[in-house]
Recover the amino acids of this structure.
């Protein structure tokens, strides 16, 4: 508002103080970022080191010779392609299941008036508080008895029955969409299914993309459940394969890091493609807690 | 009569049927994946069951065994307690500090936010194994860095004293998860409030204590509760990095449960342990909620 010439001295001094402080903040951010990136740097250089290179003393920060053959060797050592396909199938099916079912249930809770909807909402959200470990052993026994042990079903089917956290996110987001849209659609003879698929799904894109990121990450990264429910190596997920590869005596770390980099890629790519929706999708959560 | 009242009710709530159709998946999910295992787990905790035969009811013997004879029980509980005490405050403080650093309009700030969030996106097994090699005493990056700075090196995960702190350090690499939630909270604070406070001559520290902290205290509380619950259930770190050792130093409770169930085939004993963990989680959560009224700020209603 004020022009620089008319600014009182104190304000001017304050202004320059802010600038040096801004510089200090930026420097701090850069330093922290470098620290955060160092492990990645170490990972990539290790993946490119020769067998002698990884056991070189002192360790080489930047290798003298690069060895790209680690990628091929690592991929063969863990049966990577097979496990990659397994994990992709499981992750895709459980992601679709949890997004579709949570959007569906969230719609019912936010947009349809019926007795008991508030109680059920609290029941679902309350069940989020329950630690997953409580159900692990009873569900293990159940799956054993119905022949689901050592199949992918325990990793996929539960996702299709709504995820409480996603339902919470969806419900919050649905509330932000004006009811007049539903009313208008109803006057045109649209049912709830049409309103959900034609009006809500396009308008709530940030929230279901956020759900999809979370769900895919959860499935792709999950270790405990595959560890408990899968025994045959041919059905393993990548998390099991990579963990066992890292646990062998004298792990070939260069080959390991090469495959580890590929294992990281799908969640990274999905995150980068979808990240512009991410903060927006979570925004409904932040706003809800602040207000 | 009954038919009449049903008709009357459906007239009052024409959408009741369709409403329940929409929430049906979650009702089934709740009954099958939450209520059923919750109820049966109480019973399994009171049985001896090796996974193959049928569970045999033995009363409270599992619990007695845990409290009085199991050599791993108390050390494992202690390791879990230390893990929570070290990891939760450090990730909240660092997460909040980073969020405040990154909550400003600068060119390219999104790039930095992404860098900090990046490790959170990655599979936990992928990052844990990466750190396993970083912490390798002879060939790892951590000791190489220390040697370059002429500082004493460490056995890291192989050292009784350093194994648990090493796991906490690895966890801090994922502090971006805490940071992003704080960032969402900070961005919801109206900027005018800061300007007003600054015009009133508020210093940075005063603004932080009197304005920022109260306004984000609900999120701080959320992070605290979720952090405690989450770290009490940490499993992957001992499973992938240490196998619970050296000694019992990293024998986190979840890992101990898993070992008893799926390695020693003592499912009844493990389920009893699950209930100890569960009750501990409930008690600590209730305690945190009770304390929260002292420091969590809620906006007063207009009345």
């Amino acid at each position: 508002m004020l022009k620089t010439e008319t600014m009182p001295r104190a304000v001017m001094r304050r202004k320059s103080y802010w600038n040096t402080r801004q510089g200090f903040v930026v420097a701090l951010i850069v330093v922290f970022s470098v620290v955060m990136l160092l492990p990645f740097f170490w990972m990539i250089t290790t993946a490119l080191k020769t067998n002698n290179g990884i056991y070189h003393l002192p360790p080489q920060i930047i290798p003298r010779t690069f060895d790209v053959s680690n990628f091929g060797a690592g991929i063969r050592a863990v049966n990577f392609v097979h496990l990659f396909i397994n994990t992709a199938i499981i992750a895709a099916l459980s992601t679709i299941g949890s997004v579709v079912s949570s959007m569906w249930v969230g719609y019912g809770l936010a947009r349809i008036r019926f007795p008991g909807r508030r109680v059920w909402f609290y029941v679902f959200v309350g069940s989020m508080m329950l630690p997953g470990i409580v159900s692990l052993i009873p569900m293990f026994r159940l799956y054993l008895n119905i022949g689901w042990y050592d199949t992918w079903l325990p990793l996929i089917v539960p996702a299709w029955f709504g995820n409480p956290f996603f339902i919470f996110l969806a419900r919050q987001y649905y509330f932000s969409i004006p009811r007049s849209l539903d009313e208008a659609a109803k006057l045109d003879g649209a049912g709830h299914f049409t309103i959900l698929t034609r009006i809500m799904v396009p308008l709530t894109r940030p929230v279901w993309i956020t759900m999809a990121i979370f769900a895919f990450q959860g499935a792709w990264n999950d270790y405990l459940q595959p560890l408990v429910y899968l025994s045959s190596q041919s059905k393993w997920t990548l998390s099991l394969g990579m963990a066992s590869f890292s646990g062998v005596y004298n792990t070939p770390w260069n080959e390991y890091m090469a495959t580890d980099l590929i294992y990281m890629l799908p969640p990274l790519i999905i995150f980068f493609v979808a990240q512009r929706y991410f903060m927006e999708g979570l925004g409904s959560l932040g706003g809800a807690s602040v207000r | 009569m009954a038919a009449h009242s049903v008709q009357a009710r459906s007239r009052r709530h024409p959408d009741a049927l369709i409403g329940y159709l929409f929430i049906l998946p979650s009702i089934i999910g709740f009954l099958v994946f939450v209520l059923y295992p919750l109820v049966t787990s109480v019973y399994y905790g009171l049985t001896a069951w090796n996974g193959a035969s049928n569970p045999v009811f033995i009363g409270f013997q599992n619990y007695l065994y845990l409290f009085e004879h199991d050599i791993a029980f108390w050390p494992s509980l202690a390791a879990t307690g230390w893990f929570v005490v070290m990891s939760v405050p450090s990730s909240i403080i660092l997460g909040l500090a980073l969020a405040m650093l990154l909550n400003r309009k600068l060119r390219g700030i999104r790039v930095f936010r992404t860098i900090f969030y990046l490790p959170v996106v990655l599979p936990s097994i992928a990052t844990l194994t990466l750190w396993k090699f970083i912490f390798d005493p002879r060939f790892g990056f951590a000791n190489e860095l220390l040697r370059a700075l002429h500082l004493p090196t460490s056995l890291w995960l192989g050292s009784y004293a350093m194994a648990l702190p090493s796991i906490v350090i690895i966890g801090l690499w994922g502090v971006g998860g805490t940071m992003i939630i704080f960032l969402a909270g900070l961005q919801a604070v109206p900027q005018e409030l800061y300007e007003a406070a600054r015009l009133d001559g508020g210093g940075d520290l005063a603004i932080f204590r009197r304005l920022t902290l109260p306004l984000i205290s609900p999120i701080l509380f959320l992070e605290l509760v979720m952090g405690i619950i989450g770290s009490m259930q940490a499993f992957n770190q001992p499973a992938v990095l240490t196998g619970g050792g050296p000694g019992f130093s990293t024998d986190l409770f979840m890992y101990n449960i898993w070992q008893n169930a799926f390695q020693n085939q003592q499912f009844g004993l493990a389920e009893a342990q699950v209930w100890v963990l569960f009750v501990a989680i409930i008690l600590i959560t209730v305690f945190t909620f009770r304390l929260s009224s002292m420091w969590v700020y809620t906006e007063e209603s207009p009345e």
